[in-house]
Amino acid sequence: QSVLTQPPSVSGAPGQRVTISCTGSSSNIGAGYDVHWYQQFPGSAPKVLIYGNSNRPSGVPDRFSGSKSGTSASLAITGLQAEDEANYYCQSYDRSLRGSMFGGGTKLTVL
Amino acid sequence: QVLLVQSGAEVKKPGSSVKVSCKASGDTFSTYGINWVRQAPGQGLEWMGGLVPIFGTADYAQKFQGRVAITADESTRTAYMELSSLRSEDTAIYYCARDEGYSGSYYGYWGQGTLVTVSS
Fold first, then answer.
1. 50-79 in chain A: CB under 8 A from chain B
2. Band of the pLDDT at B56, cuts 50, 70, 90?
3. Is pLDDT at B72 greater than 90 in this prediction?
4. Contact status of A99 with chain B (Cβ, < 8 Å)
């Protein structure tokens, strides 16, 4: 069981908006540590999608956005496309565990 | 452009050890953290530990304390992850990933992954 909790799956039709939540605690997200998001396709290494809560690396479409509030963070994807179908992971640091950690992952299905 | 190239797939017996390498090119090696993340078949990502080569001391996830050793050779720009007392549950893809040099930073560069299969 992950310290960071994500919904196992979300889905949406093309063009719609979906959000993926990442719920932590006062020892990680709530302690002020950044949240980062990764996209992973089957058979490939993860790729950073959002870093530092809301920053997009060069090349990531602005359809992807991140936010953080209190002990939670969210990844939003607007204008959903078939190519967005993938697994998404949040990541942060926990001061009690003194290490990095990932959420359990969310599988996005584009209907 | 940073490139991380990992060693090839391994098949190991239960109780043995495995050592996976990760060779970096394209940017400063010593001042950025190299982390190891594994992914069991059909499962999520799991951070194992990491180190910043110039500091030399690794941090490990509690789950792997005493069973994993992460090291780095600055002269060859190569990081290593050795996992001992292997069991079937250690069957996974092991990735190295470079962070930005501070605790809690993101992993902007990843190796291609190394499949380790533990089977008798």
1. 51-52, 57
2. confident
3. yes
4. yes
